[in-house]
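To whoever is on call:

I kicked off a structure prediction for a single chain this morning and the downstream step that reads the tokens threw a length-mismatch warning. I double-checked the sequence; it's 241 residues and nothing unusual in it as far as I can see. Pasting both halves so you can look.
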Amino acid sequence: MEKQTNNPPVDKRAAVESMFDSIAWRYDFLNHFLSLGIDKLWRRKAIKVISQHCKNPRILDVATGTGDLAIASLKLNPVSVTGIDISKKMLEIGREKIEKMGLSRSVTLLEGDSENMPFAAESFDVAMVAFGVRNFSDPLKGLSEMRRVLKENGFVMVLEFSKPGSFPFRSIYKFYFLNILPFFGRVFSKDSAAYRYLPESVMRFPDNEAFLSLLRSAGFETAMQITLTGGIASIYTGIKK
């Protein structure tokens, strides 16, 4: 299943790794606090969407962080769940959490780069990522790599922030992301740079039809979008043919 890879130094990759290492100790708390717990509902919805397409799959969770989506995917009764991330600190916290929950035999977390994965082609039935694609150095390359490791008819699921289109919700959303979120992130994590980067990365990221186009460019067919909570987040899906 494994293959040998070489990870060339990438400026954004190093910066993202360092940033998430620095906020790992507060990451779970801030995720739930700043989203008022809605992120948990979004993950459950994402898993429900996967369940409609796959039974007992081999799952890859890319940019797994502390493993929340990987843990949630156990409801699918998978053959295996493997999560990868470039942040060693996030993985450490994820492994501790998984061990405390008694799930060490069910979920495996590994250090790995989304754009150069240590897996052979056609290793998984499902490749998923939550709130991670916008942190890829090259989103198209990362999505193409996810396609490479999927089996024929494999399913990709991307849960990511998107920008609401209607006024005044769009204005409120933008104010929250660019002002409220960085303030509380700075207070609780002591890393002001990280919580400036995160909302800015959301504002820059191609969403809605632009992201569906990116999925198609990566080779996925039947690309679809499900909007969540007024368009604050979206579930994007596709199939490898």
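Update from on-call: the warning came from a stale cache, not from the record. Cleared it. Sanity check on the structure: Residues 1-10 have pLDDT under 50 and may be disordered.
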